Structures are given as C-alpha cells and as structure tokens.
Amino acid sequence: MAKDPLRIYTELQKGFSKDVKADRNHELLGELYQASAGFLGKLDQVELKSMVPGKQYFAFTLKRKLSRAVNASLFGDYLNKWAKLDKAITSKKFTGWDSDGITRLLYSAALAFCCYIDLTKDGDQKTPGTFFEYLVGHLFARTLGINPETSLPVLNLDMDTNLPTDFVFNLGKNRPKFHLPVKTSTRERVIQVWAHQRVLDGVYGTGRFLGTPVILTETKSDKRKREVIEICLPDQWRIYQMHIAQLKRVYYLDVPVVYNNLNQVFPPISVKPFGDFFFEADALGA
Amino acid sequence: MAKDPLRIYTELQKGFSKDVKADRNHELLGELYQASAGFLGKLDQVELKSMVPGKQYFAFTLKRKLSRAVNASLFGDYLNKWAKLDKAITSKKFTGWDSDGITRLLYSAALAFCCYIDLTKDGDQKTPGTFFEYLVGHLFARTLGINPETSLPVLNLDMDTNLPTDFVFNLGKNRPKFHLPVKTSTRERVIQVWAHQRVLDGVYGTGRFLGTPVILTETKSDKRKREVIEICLPDQWRIYQMHIAQLKRVYYLDVPVVYNNLNQVFPPISVKPFGDFFFEADALGA
C-alpha cells in the first residue's frame, strides 16, 4: 500500500528544525512528493478558465472538491529528477540542468502536496504554508551548506533581546547573510517582507542581509466560475522598494506576469524564477 | 420582536462608506449595540481563568459555544450613554465624562456585537474586524468633523499612482493628518502598522501623518482550559518604533498590561486607553 502523505509530513515536521539541511529531510521531502503525486495521479483534472495572459491552469478534483490552480506548463512528472537535483546541489555541478528545469521540478513537488491537502482537508492553509517553508528552507540550507536561524540577538546599548526572524543564513564574517521569507502567496501582506528587511537593515546595518523572499504563486481561483487570476500590486511593490527597504531578489515558482515586468522598469525590482537561485547563489553577495 | 443584529449590520455595511460620519451611521451603531446587548443579556456567563495580572475575564455561552474573553471591569450596561456620548463629541463639551467612562462604553459596544458573532457564526473573524473598523472610523470622523479617505495620490516624478491606505483623515493645509489603522488584535501582524506609517513618512514626508492605531485587545483564550492570556511583543514594538517609523499613539479599548509599561521606558511608546483620544484629539498635532 502507498504511504500516506500526511504521515510522512508528520515525520518531517517532528525532525525538520533539528538539522534543516539533513539528508533525512531531503529523503522525507522526496517521499512526500512521491506519495502526493501518486495520490493525484489517480484523480481527474478539470481545466480552469485562465484570466492570466499566456498561462493555462487546471485543478485536480476529488468528489466535489477542487484543488488550487495548477500551472499546466510548469507541473509535470519530474519525480525521477528529485534525487538528481540533490546531487547537483551538493556537488555544485549543474551540468545538464537549467533554471527552467529546476523551477518546474520544484513547482511540481510543492504543488503536489499542497493539492493533496486542498483535497483532503477543509480550509487548511497552515499545513501547505509550513510545508512550503520546509521545502524552500531545506533547499537554501542545502545549497548554502549551512543551517538557518530564526532569531537573532540584538545588542543595542541598554537593550539586550532576541529578534524573531524568518529564516536567516549567516555565511560568516565578511560574507553575505540571507534573509529568506517564504510564502505560498503574498497579496497585501507582502509589506511584512519589506518591513522585516527594514528591521534587519536598521538593527544590523544596511546591506548586511540580502533579502531573497521565495513565493509559490499569486494565483487565486474563483471555484464557482472556475476562473484563475493573479493578484498583483506592482505600484505598491515599487513604493515599498523605494521607501521601506531594498530586496535583492524576489523568487517565484510561478512568476506572475505583472511582477516579471518590474525587471524592466527603473529602479527595477529583480523578480526571477526560483531555479535562477541555484545558479547565482554564490554571486549574489558580490 | 427584537431586531436581528445581523440585519442592522447589513444595513450599516451598505451605507457606511458613503458618509462615514453620518448621523445614520451613529444610529445604526447604537441599534447594533442595543440588539447585541439584548441578545447577550439572556445568556449565561462563565468565568475564565485570567493569566493576566489584575484583570478578570468571563465569556458568554450559548449551547456549546463560548464567546471571546470579556474584561469584567470594562464591560457593562452603558446603553443609555451611547446617545449622550455623541452629544459630547459633536458639541465638543465633555462635562461629566472622563476617559475611563468613554473607554468602558466603547469597549462594551464593541464586545457586544463581536460576542454575538462569536456565538452565532462559525469561525467568522472578518465580520467583527470590519464592524470594529466601522465603529472606530465613525467615532474618529465624528470627532474630527471630516470623513476619512482610504487611498492617497502619489505624484513622484514619473510615478503617478494611488496608494491604498487604512483610514486617513486630512484636516487640511498646515494641519495634522491622521493615519488610523484599526485592528481587533495585532500579534505578529502589528509590523504592518509601522510599515504603513513608514510608507506615509517616505512618500509624503516625516511628521505629516500622525499614526494613531486603535486596537480592541490582545487577549487570547484557550477554550478548552478556559484560560485567558495577553499576547504581547514589547521588545519587538520597541525595535519597530526605533527602526521602522514613529507612531504617535497606540490606543487600546483593553490596554494590555505589558504594553502599558512601554509608557515608562525610554524612548517611550505612548500606549493609552481609547477614551483619552477624545480629550487630546485637538492637541495631538501640536
């Protein structure tokens, strides 16, 4: 009998934080992908009406439930590449890989478990959110070769406290530190990402932390009409980037069309597919 | 037969934004208070175990449901004062009133409808949140004698867009503008309030907008154990106030003990009961 994705997730959850970059976490994330993909493979798909130029979406369906929207050109059966990607990451040899291939694989792994939860739980947004943090946090840790922290000491004259943070990766003295917020989608809550970057800049000095949020998608489905839209606030992003703090990159698994255009304006905001990270991680601090 | 609170709320919702300070909104908010208080008056109360020093809490109960925590020393039958407070506000004559009395009245009006929703709906957090925005937005508008806006023009060289905002009140040229975020509770989402203030400071100039968020309470109940705690992050508030932006006041209907202490540290954060606002509104811009 196939393994239950939720049982694998529970095991992942129990041990994840002890050693984020651990081999065991990589295995469990792979098993989770496999079990979820197996579950979805037996289900029907329904096409959704995409209001997003140039993108097609469908949803998995079980009984009367519909999963979140799945980007048809990104989602596929890439299970056999999961272990291979890990070899590339740990050996830093990406021969035969390109950014698109990595993005598609990771999009598919992320969406598989998210859709499984959509179809087997009622209104559970927390589990997909936490799972996606595990997936991205682990991949960052494995790429950078160090584990993240989620709290930093503040020593500011008579103030001596700890600041809770998103994942931060400290590469050591005189090297960049990464500030990694991870979200399945952002909408108007995105201002938090810039605000946390501002706090890091203020407390530790501008430029010490590279803000590199990773976001799954900005799609929203109207399940009754079976329509998919992307909710984007590009003008607000520009105002936040000018007036709150500077993010180094914004990575997406499914890059929204409107945000992609922010690469072209001045001052630009660098919005990229997550696959790019694996090719530029070393260069980002330069 | 008594009026159904939800029907009154629907009517309020339909017309509220057309003229926030309107007499009709005041009547409807009063009717809503009356109908909700009438509903609660017939219910049993259960005492909660308060983990907050110096405060007692209870909850209303209906069938197997429990309302949110109600502060026993703030909640009371002040229905007959609703119209009188309005006379004081519109005539700017507060003889016979003090801050405590106003805070208790407004706390009771706010909690009455929130508890009604807690007991008649499942997991509806949106309705109490929107209702509380109506209540506080209306009272600010009535006090300042002008209606709020929820969007501001940005004219910044080649950038010409609109910035969506919380309620902002523009008293006119050379006079203060108020930035009024309204929340039933904040927890870690509070960073948004400072971030929005930072955007206003950045786009329009520091000091032009007085940030005066109004928050209902920071209590959280464990319904199984019937315990009440206050969730407070005072060290983070201090870091936000030093590194993101400066809030002029933080008003509470039920001031958390820990945040009240922020008045005593240096640099202080001015945390006050909402009743204080009505006595200092004119002086805040000075």
Most extensive protein-chain contact, per-chain counts: A-B, 26 and 26 residues
Total number of helices of chain A: 9
The sequence of SSEs of chain A as H and E is: HHEEEEEHHHEEEEHEEEEHEHEH
**Helix residue percentage of chain A:** 25-40%
Oligomer: homodimer
Average pLDDT for all residues of chain A = 95
What is the radius of gyration of chain A?
A: 19 Å
What can be said about the biggest beta sheet of chain A? 4 strands, antiparallel
Report the principal-axis shape of chain A: globular
Terminus-to-terminus distance of chain A:
50 Å
If you had to describe this structure to a student in words, what would you say it looks like?
2 copies of one chain form a homodimer. In chain A, strands 1, 3, 4 and 5 form a 4-stranded antiparallel β-sheet that branches. A 4-stranded mixed β-sheet of chain A has the order 6-7-8-10. Chain A is globular, with a radius of gyration of 19 Å. Chain A has 2 domains: 5-124 and 134-143, no CATH class; 145-280, no CATH class. The first copy, chain A, has helices at residues 5-15, 23-41, 82-91, 99-120, 126-144, 191-204, 234-243, 257-260, 277-280, and strands spanning 44-47, 49-50, 57-62, 65-66, 70-71, 149-156, 159-170, 177-180, 182-183, 209-211, 214-215, 219-222, 227-230, 250-252, 271-273. Chain A has 9 helices and 15 strands. Chain A has 286 residues and is of the alpha/beta class. Chain A binds chain B through residues 154, 159, 161-164, 188-189, 191-192, 194-196, 198-199, 201-203, 235-236, 238-240, 242-244, and chain B through 154, 159, 161-164, 188-189, 191-192, 194-196, 198-199, 201-203, 235-236, 238-240, 242-244.
